[in-house]
Amino acid sequence: MKIDAIVLAAGRSERAGLFKAAADLGGKPLLWRSIESFAGICERIIVVGGYRFGDIQELLENMPGLVIRENKNYEKGMFSSVQTGLHALQSDAFFLLPGDQPLIAARTYRRMAQQDADIVVPRYQGKKGHPVFFRASCIPEILAMPETAVLRDYIHAHGKVCILDVDDPAILMDADTPGDLERIRDYYFKQRKGQ
Questions:
Q1: Which of 5, 66, 100, 112 could pair with 95 as two cysteines, CB 3.0-4.6 Å apart?
Q2: Rg of the chain's alpha carbons, rounded to an integer?
Q3: Which residue range(s) make up the domain with 124?
Q4: Contacts of 164 (CB under 8 A, 6+ apart)
Q5: What confidence tens digit (pLDDT) does each residue in 41-65 have?
Q6: Which residue, 82, 133, 144, is CA-closest to 104?
């Protein structure tokens, strides 16, 4: 099965108080770490930018093999970025990951891809997180929805969804605020020490 990834990096990141795609995480930009988490998992990685798109392009210019797409309507919300990414897919299935979640474990991706479901949502200690895994059969329905739709509503209305319990707290770690970013850095360095 060919699997692609869509990494969403179009938002303004206003609550973070900085351009979080470029925030340092162990000597590399946060967005790089998110992309690198798919190493050995996905054939193609599609990054969707919007706000400060030129800066996203510059940030990623030394990363080979990426497909970078601009969502000019990013102000309409995350769903419009999802749809932008879907137009570039060439696979049987895909992961959808916000660009500020850099520490997902490879075992989490692998377990999700092994499930017999159209949609797989990971859960850690009772809380659902990201990434979400979709079979390509979902694409026409998602593209037919309005740009302002909410992906969560589509997932809830879909019949074949697997909620998968995983031992990976990183599925709940995004960098919405400066405090979130510090927690991600702490977890990253703890993981490095444990290797």
A1: 5
A2: 16
A3: 3-194
A4: 111, 112, 115, 120, 121, 122, 123
A5: 998 999 999 999 999 999 999 888 8
A6: 133
Q: Cβ distance 31 to 7 under 8 Å?
A: yes
Whether the pLDDT of residue 189 is over 70: the answer is yes
| Residue 7 · residue 95 · CB < 8 Å | no
Average pLDDT on 4-17 reads: 85
Residue the block writes with tokens 């989490």: 108
HSE (side-chain half, CA atoms, 13 Å) at 182: 4
Q: What is the CATH number of the domain that holds 96?
A: 3.90.550.10
Strands (E) in 71-192, as ranges, are 93-98, 119-124, 127-128, 132-135, 161-165
pLDDT > 70: percent of the chain: 97
> Which pLDDT score is estimated for 195?
59
Structural domain count, the chain:
1
